[in-house]
Amino acid sequence: MKYQGTDLDIVENETVLDTLLRHKKEVSYSCLSGLCQSCLLHAVKGDVSPDAKNGLTGTAITRNHFLACQQPASTIDSVADIDLNALFSHAVVVEKSLYAADVLCIKLEPVNPHYYHAGQFINIRNSQGDVRSYSIANLPATEPFIELHIQRIAKGKLSTWLFDMVNLGDIIEFQGALGHCFYVPDSSNIDNDLMLIGTGTGAAPLIGIAKDALHAKHKGDIHFYHGVRTIESLYLHQQLTNLEEQYPNFYYYPCLSGEVNGEEKSLAFYYMNYGRASDIALEAISSPSTTQLFLCGNPNMVNATRKMALLSGISSQNINTDPFDHI
Ligand SMILES: Cc1cc2nc3c(=O)[nH]c(=O)nc-3n(C[C@H](O)[C@H](O)[C@H](O)COP(=O)(O)OP(=O)(O)OC[C@H]3O[C@@H](n4cnc5c(N)ncnc54)[C@H](O)[C@@H]3O)c2cc1C
Ligand code: FES
Questions:
Q1: In this predicted structure, which of 75-84, 142-151, 155-164, 265-274 has the lowest mean pLDDT?
Q2: pLDDT tens for residues 255-287?
C-alpha cells in the first residue's frame, strides 16, 4: 500500500490505520471503532469497504474519504492525507469550571456559526495533533456556546490538557458536530416515554437530549438514570433535581453502583437507587413497544444494555447509543 507516495508493506487482516501506525506514521485517530471520524483519509486508488464509509457525508464519500480504522489495508492500493484544516474549525474558551473534582465543564464559542444537536459530539485536537471526542451537553437553540463535560482520566492526553493547560480566552480546534444520538421531534413519537441511561460523563449528551425534548414540549415521560460509583460523581444532581421540579414529566434517578457503607447511606438522598443504572432502568420499563432508549457512556454498559433492551422487546430503531469508546 502506498501512503503519500511511499510504499508500505501490509500484514494480513490489518486495517489501513494499523499499517500506518506500524510504520510509525503520524496519523490522527481516537475511538478505533468507526465512530469519531478522526482517522479520515483519502483513497487515491482502491476499493473502499462499506464499513469505512459508514456515517460519512455524501460529499466525503464522493471525495473518496474513508475511515482508516475500518478499512482493510488489502483492498486499498494508495492513500493520502486529507486537508485536516478544512475539517477543523476554531472556538474560543468562554467558560471553564469544575462540576466535581474530576469533571470539568467547558464552554466553547465557535468563531463561525455552527449548527448542531444536543447529544452529538465534537472532536477536539490539541497542539500535538491528538484528537478525542466530547459530547454536546446543551441546547444550541437557546445558547450561543457548546458545553462539554470532561472526565479527568489519569495520564489521559486530551483530558489532562483540557483540565490543566487550556485557559479562558484560548482558541482551540474542533471538528463536527458528528453522531446520530439526539432527540428527533416527531408527531408519531411525541407521546413515547424516553428512557435516558448514562454512566459518568455519559450524562453530558443525555442532559442535552433531555433539554431538547423538554424544549420541543415532548409529552411522554422522560426518565433520566445517572449511574456512578460514588455520590460525589453525581455531578449534575442539582441541575437534574431542578428539571424534575420544573417539569411534571421529567424524572431523575441517581444510581450508585459502588460499595456504600452505613454512614454514606445515611447521607445519601432518600430516593437514591443502589445498583447498576442499566439494570434498574430496564426493570422499570412497562411498555417496551413505545419506549425510546438513549444509552451513553461506558462502552461495555452501552453494548450490554442494548442487547438486553432488544431482548426485552424494544425495537432497534428506538435504541440510540453513544458509547464513549477509547483507545
Ligand atoms: C462519541 C464519543 C463521545 C465522547 N464523549 C465524552 C464526553 O462527553 N465526556 C468525556 O469525558 N469523555 C467522552 N468521550 C471519551 C473521550 O473521547 C476520551 O476517550 C477520554 O477523554 C480519554 O481521552 P484522554 O486523551 O484523556 O486519554 P487517553 O490518552 O486516550 O488514554 C489514557 C489511558 O486511559 C485509558 N482510558 C481512556 N479513557 C478511559 C475511560 N473513560 N475510562 C477508563 N480508562 C480510560 C486509555 O485506555 C489509556 O490507557 C467520548 C468518546 C466518544 C467516542
Ligand atoms: S472512526 Fe476511526 S478512530 Fe474513530
A1: 265-274
A2: 998 877 766 666 566 678 899 999 999 999 988
CATH of 85-178, one of 3.30.1540.10, 2.40.30.10, 2.60.120.10, 3.90.1150.10: 2.40.30.10
Question: Per-residue pLDDT averaged across 179-196, rounded?
Answer: 90
Fold of 193-323: Rossmann fold (3.40.50)
Domain coordinates in residue numbering, the chain:
2-82, 85-178, 193-323
Q: Which protein residue has the closest C-alpha to ligand 1 atom 13? A: 134
For 199-255, how does the pLDDT look when each residue is reduced to its tens digit (9 = 90+)?
A: 999 999 999 999 999 999 999 999 999 999 988 899 999 999 999 999 999 999 999
Specify the ligand 2 atom closest to the Cα of 17.
Answer: 2
Asked if residue 101 has a cis previous peptide bond (ω within 30° of 0), the answer is no
2-82, superfamily in CATH?
A: Beta-grasp domain (3.10.20.30)
**φ, ψ for residue 52 (rounded to 5)?**
-80, -5
In the block, residue with C-alpha cell 460509583: 229
272 Cβ below 6 A of ligand 1 = no
Distance 148 CA to ligand 1 centre (A): 13
- Nearest atom, ligand 2, residue 133 CA: 4
- 268 Cβ neighbours under 8 A, 6+ residues apart: 231, 256, 260
Ligand with smallest separation from the Cα of 323: 1
| Residue to probe by mutation, ligand 1, list 324, 325, 327, most atoms within 8 Å of CB | 324
CA triple 184-134-60, angle to 5 deg: 70
* Ligand 1 pocket check for 134: Cβ under 6 Å: yes
pLDDT at 267: 59
Q: Are the C-beta atoms of residues 16 and 1 closer than 8 Å to each other?
A: yes
CA of 23 from ligand 2 middle (Å) equals 18
What is the rounded average pLDDT of the residues 165-179? 93
